[in-house]
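Before relying on records like the one below, remember that each one covers exactly one chain. Contacts with other chains, cofactors or solvent are not represented anywhere in the record.
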Amino acid sequence: MREKRLLLRMRAVEEAEKAEELEERGVEKPRIGVYVCHCGINIALTVDVEAVRDYAKTLPNVVLARNYIYMCSDPGQGLIAEDLKAGRINRVIVAACSPRMHELTFRKVCADNGLNPFYFEQANIREHCSWPHVDYKEEATEKAKEIVRAAVARASLLEALEQKEVNVEPAALVIGGGVAGIQAALDIADAGFRVYLVEKKPSIGGHAAQLSKTFPVMKSVSSFLAPRMIEVGAHPNIVLLTHTDIEDVSGFIGNYEVKVRKKARFVDENKCTGCGECAKVCPVEVPDEYNEGLSKRKAIYMPFSFAVPPVFLVDAENCSLLKNGKCGDATLEDVRAGKAKTPCMAACKEDAIDFSQKDKEAQFKVGTIIVATGYDIIDPRLLPEYHYGEYPNVITGLEFERLASPTGPTGGKIIVNGREPKDVVFISCVGSRNKQTGYPYCSRICCMYLMKQAHFVKEKLPDANVTVLYQDVRAFGKGFEEFWDEVLKEGVVYRRGLPGEIYQKPGSDRLVVRAEDTMLGETYELEADLVVLGVGIRPSDTAEEVISMLKLSKSADGFLLEAHPKLRPVDTAIDGIFVAGCCQGPKDITDTVAQGRAAASAALAYLVKGVAEIEPATSEVSEDMCVGCRCCEKVCPFGAIEFDEERHITRVNEAICKGCGCCVGMCPSGAASVRHFRDKHIYAQIETFTS
């Protein structure tokens, strides 16, 4: 490590000498303009802005310094533009907030006024100074001066970088066929571009297809979801790939190579009419996942009545012929040889069932990708005190949705243990807001869907006693508070405090819910015929595969991480890849649709333009210094480094590289460096703090 530091220091000295040579050859000397922002009172309340401005004037290569209340405002940007147009400066430093907020804003000002945008440097005197030192104005002011001093030292050595472009393939990949994926696919397709919509399950629709009605307007989900699903299936610009897994994604913005495997349905999609005669004669019954296991389906089945595509498929894991090699008198060998037919084959008049089908692989190229992998529900078994899975009348909110749905196993009648319940208890925040389960965040939708379900009970069973046990009620959306008022008027009782235990009443199938009313400060017990657990939502299991494949990042709660929570909520750190819906965080249908449209718009920005700009602040490897050890290749999180077997050196694919610098830290020979973050830049800043 000591040798490496010495090597890097020597390299920094060499680069400094090169800078002197450039100056001797007549390269323009830096003339730096420093602009100190008040940020309203965010900075000015703690930092003496005028003192920092005056100090900046004394620094090497600084020819002017100004201050303004909001540098990011049009007048603030105008100050920089005016000085650039007048030729007073050829380097710009703005001492303000984090570069994550406005670096691109000020780079654009530079570019629009004839200065290479990489001659701009931002000194963070808000997050790094004024905010953490609110009670120490004198010390904060001195620290702000040092931060500006370091920025000046770096800006004096900055190099001009040229923006590069790559062509963008006029097609998009949407991963996930739920509400967000459907909306994004339709928006892109309607704009005239091809969309590959890949869904792991046999039908699009996601969890929304299991719901009966939506809050707060109580509109039937199928009335608006089914037409959108049909539109996807019929759209000429959408290639719908259901029952399909993504095997691999490689490439970079504008040029992603996608490999998928479409699993065999064992039913010809072009021949099947969806008549259902095959299912009538199938001898195998298994739990129906669409109804959350509350009913049975056959081994050959259609996922649900308005599924898209509207064709049957064979459940390969449970089909007797595929699992055991025999169904009735027919063996798999004879069936594939055309010598025998299974009962389902005999019943199919269209001859659509084909047990010789195999999985098919396909490859295609896209310019942008939208990830909309949705969510799964938190397993209520993580809270054993609720005895989910042990008592049949303890069910999840999603199971209740199927009970209350007209297309559910009971035709919309709420029946438990063979009768209508008289006492129903709903429990909120099951799994969510609980560090012990590993899901400390709020799932946002649970309060509202429990209100909706409580309304269902009062609507269908007016004489039933309905109680909701809650931590807090979060009615955050448009019309939600009013909906809560209506539910209370219907006679639904809300009691604050989650139960500590549920047990079965001796000699009865009724349940006893033991809890504490935190408003009254007293414990109580409620008898119930039905307990509904308001389970929260978690990232989909599919998300882990996608994260690994696309080199995406996760937030602390496991959802996909956006580039910026406020300014870039659908972007990721990987150019050309966007997120939408519950894979990014819990949200209801309204917000999911909005984010699907936002992701589509972001993707279309590249598709319409046809080219994408590549960030030039990327890594590079000196071919003269590279020893071919491939250490950098192993640590690159984006797969941007390629090894030249003939020359025994590594190269960086600039379109993939994000300039993270992992290769620089690992390179033992000092051959790797990051443009715009050279050793000389870093050492120059360090020297200001140590001198």
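Residues 277-347 form one domain.
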